[in-house]
Amino acid sequence: MSTDKTPDTTPDTTPDHRSTAELRAEADRARAALAGTLDAIEYKLNVPKQIKINTRRFTLGLHRLGEDNPIALAGIALGAAATVGTVVWWGVKTVLDRR
Fold first, then answer.
1. Which tens digit of pLDDT belongs to each residue from 13-44?
2. Three-state DSSP class for 81?
């Protein structure tokens, strides 16, 4: 048994004989793939656009919840109002106590 391993594939040493049309088609496919990749990167890194999309999703979700279960939406609104009120009350109390 030999320990020398030869690679399963050998580099292609024959010249590539493709027509100009085939090379252009391949270049066009590569450009399209690159453009798609760049669009995907831009989509992910565009923070204002992502905020706008997520805000619309959240708003649509609230509208659907309001149509499907208005009592749950009212509970969520009451909880949010109570949380905001509590935070404001603590802030005002802290400022007044420091005087």
1. 556 688 999 999 999 999 999 999 999 999 89
2. helix
**CA angle (54 as vertex; 66, 62 as ends), nearest 5:** 5
pLDDT tens-place string over residues 39-95: 999 989 999 999 999 999 999 999 999 999 999 999 999 999 999 999 999 999 999
DSSP 3: -
pTM over 0.70: no
For residue 83, give both structure tokens.
């949380």
CA 45 to each of CA 39, 42, 58, 80: distance values in angstroms, whole numbers, following the listed order: 10, 5, 20, 30
* Residues whose CB is less than 8 angstroms from the CB of residue 26 and which lie 6 or more positions away in sequence, other chains included: 18
Contacts of 44-51 spanning 24+ positions with Cβ under 8 A: none
